[in-house]
Amino acid sequence: MEILIEHLTHRYAGAESPVLRDVSLRIGAGECVALIGASGSGKSTLLRLIAGLSRAESGTIRVGGHIIQSGGQLAADIRRRRAGIGMVFQQFNLVGRLSLQTNVLAGALHRQPLWRTLSFTLPEPELRAATAALQRVGLADLALRRADTLSGGQQQRAAIARTLLQGAGVILGDEPVSSLDPGSADRVLQAFARINREDGVTCILCLHQIDYARALCPRTIALAGGRVVFDGATSDLTADLLGRIYAHPPDRFVPPAP
User: Fold this and answer.
1) What is the pLDDT of residues 80-113, one digit of tens each?
2) Is 258 a member of any domain?
3) Radius of gyration over alpha carbons of the chain, in Å?
4) Between vectors from CA 27 to CA 40 and to CA 70, what angle results, nearest 5°?
5) Per mean pLDDT, which range of 101-110, 146-155, 189-198 is the poorest?
6) Could you tell me if residue 2 is inside a domain?
7) How far lies 217's CA from each of 114, 145, 172, 190, in Å?
8) Other C-beta atoms within 10 Å of 242: how many?
């Protein structure tokens, strides 16, 4: 699913300066893109706006050709559109007392009748799909374990499996490995890579670790002060450019010399 963003601006209530300023981007279907920038540069806000979890001040976002929001208003069918966009948060967002299988099955609730949603009695094909999704992220043998008994990396991979059951054509990762040790982070990122490669799912991963971006994402978008200051091949991110992105005050980004 292609993502098209046009002249997106967003300001939090009471803030003097916008957190995003006239952002325009096109991310092609099936791309795997890293989103980088210093804290406060607008990365998480951008992902939440793409997912339709927040409403922008102005601008338009389309995902898969369908409007998510435009002119400060969410699409009338936003709940339906959100079903095609998976979000993996830094803090996993699993229900700890429930099994991994049950947490993953939550990804299927949007296509169930109300009585099944209220009783959480899902049909056998959904149960099999949940097992298959856990198998793809290497957790099938832990399907019946409580989520809060497992490591952070295992919980994060379960969150990815939930987006698979959701049927998402886009997966947004909001610092999905920032709280994980290197081994767990590598397994989580490899799960993203397999889904992108095998399913053609469009991925945007907000990452602070540039080495991970270089290993996983051919393209990188960098934000500074709410503006896009780099959009190109990850291999073109030099030490000098990274220093400019991260070291300067966000409203004083100095572009590299031509």
Assistant:
1) 999 999 999 988 789 999 999 999 998 888 877 7
2) no
3) 19
4) 70
5) 101-110
6) no
7) 39, 32, 13, 11
8) 14
The answer to whether the CB of 26 falls within 8 A of the CB of 39 is: no
Burial of 43 per CB tally in 10 Å (0-12, 13-18, 19+): buried
In a domain, 236, yes or no: yes
pLDDT higher than threshold 70 for residue 250: no
Instruction: Write out the residue range of the structural domain in which residue 187 sits.
Output: 30-53+79-252
Residue with tokens 């997966």: 171
What is the CATH number for 232?
3.40.50.300
Express the helix, strand and coil content of the chain in percent, nearest 5 each: 40, 25, 35
Pairing outcome for strands 66-70 and 58-63: antiparallel
Instruction: Report if residue 10 sits inside a domain.
Output: no
- How many independent structural domains does the chain possess? 1
